[in-house]
Amino acid sequence: MRRLLPSAAVVAAFTLTVSACGGGGGEPAAPAASVSDPSKISGEVTWWDTTRPDSEGPTFQALIKEFETKYPQIKVKYVNVPSDQAQNQFQTAAQAGSGAPDVIRSEVAWTSQFASLGYLQPLDGSRAVDKPEDFLPGPLSSTKYNGKTYAVPQVTDTLALIYNKRLLKEAGHEEPPKTIPELKQAALDVKAKTGVAGLALNVDSYFLLPFMYGEGGDLLDVANKKIVVNSPANVKAIETVSDLITSGAAPKPATTESYANAMTALKEGKAAMIYNGPWALSEIYQGKEFKDKKNLGIAPVPAGSVKAAAPTGGWNLAIYAGSKNIPAAYEFVRFMTTPEAQAKIAKEISLLPTRTSAYENPDVKGNADVAVFQPIMDTAVPRPWIPEGGQLFQPLLEGYQSLVGGESAPADVLKKVDEQYRGIMKDWS
């Protein structure tokens, strides 16, 4: 489940100096790059995984068994931490200097934040980073902070329009909508002709970004250190979302649990379309509507007046700077990000590889869902890989909730978000 919102505790961490952290300041441990026989390395690696335990977890646990077979003296303690809790829990444990895992599956927006606080082990020159030239530039860029590498890309993703082919066809649409006006009309037709919701919205700031990008908007202009969230383009985008709700194209969503609600509606045939990413597919296929996988459609998000684009997401593997098992953690991260591991993940649960070579693997080529998402990734918009990046979502979420709740007009939403951003990015114009 995709949740990117930092808690108040995480935001507060930015007021602390790096020297206050319990991770040892992120200084390199004893080098392990020259190990003559890596299979002889011993230790126990605690890994915090953030995947869904029911639909994704089994694939990762199977990889752990393969790793332990290859490295018989290393044991992996697998801990599944919900993705909407992992950021706060890791920050709290790292700051306290106890209870943090050796390895964390870090959302791409968290990596630079944790690195800036000294919580992550630098990886340049270590065995954790194998053939960096093989990684896609976008995912690889999310692992850097101040010119150093602090993580290894595991999977990448973006958002797409995911739809029920049967319901769209019953509403008279053989093809998915390509533009926002077409999206609105298709949703209204589904409602009129089938009696179910046309589009189920997710009240989450990440899911607002395709509408903003579609109008040519963004949150920040990083190159010029400018806050651009309160722009005419973004006002138009928020007005578009508001119109989808008021027109009936999308039923008014709840301000909480809307992700789960939208997923349930799609799986049960109570909604024809949602925005979501490849991480959701393994769960969607468990729904009664998609026992026949051919009924599921995947298409680029509909274009706004400027373009069709969605945010770049994904997950990295990072090592806690205070780990007592650095050499073993290097080997674990290396193994879990090999082309072979990524191919297994892509084959079984359709998560997108971050290595170029993995896409040449027959198991990856044979996954139709990956094949659909791969060109969509080419239009994905990189997010700002800055320490404050993880703080940008809470103000936007609160604005989205106030819009849905009828408390704020689109322009007022963005005005307030802009004010909150200026409290975060204090030296930005």
Written description of the protein model:
The strands form 4 sheets. This protein has a 6-stranded mixed sheet with strand order 2-1-3-13-6-14, with helices on both faces. It contains 17 helices and 14 strands. It has helices at 8-13, 57-70, 83-96, 108-116, 137-141, 165-170, 180-194, 209-214, 232-246, 258-267, 281-284, 326-336, 339-349, 362-365, 368-377, 393-404, 410-424; strands spanning 43-49, 74-80, 103-107, 144-145, 148-149, 152-157, 160-164, 197-200, 220-221, 226-227, 271-276, 296-299, 313-319, 352-353. With 429 residues, the protein is α+β, with helices and mostly antiparallel strands. Helix 16 (393-404) packs antiparallel against helix 17 (410-424). This is Arabinogalactan oligomer / maltooligosaccharide transport system substrate-binding protein. Residues 1-20 form the signal peptide.
What attributes characterize this protein structure?
429 residues; alpha+beta; D-Maltodextrin-Binding Protein, domain 2; 2 domains; six-stranded mixed sheet; four-stranded mixed sheet; 14% strand; disordered N terminus
Count of DSSP E strands? Answer: 14
Strand fraction equals: 5-15%
The 3D shape can be described as globular
Which homologous superfamily in CATH is the superfamily of the largest domain?
A: Periplasmic binding protein-like II
pLDDT averaged over residues: 91
Classification by helices and strands: alpha+beta
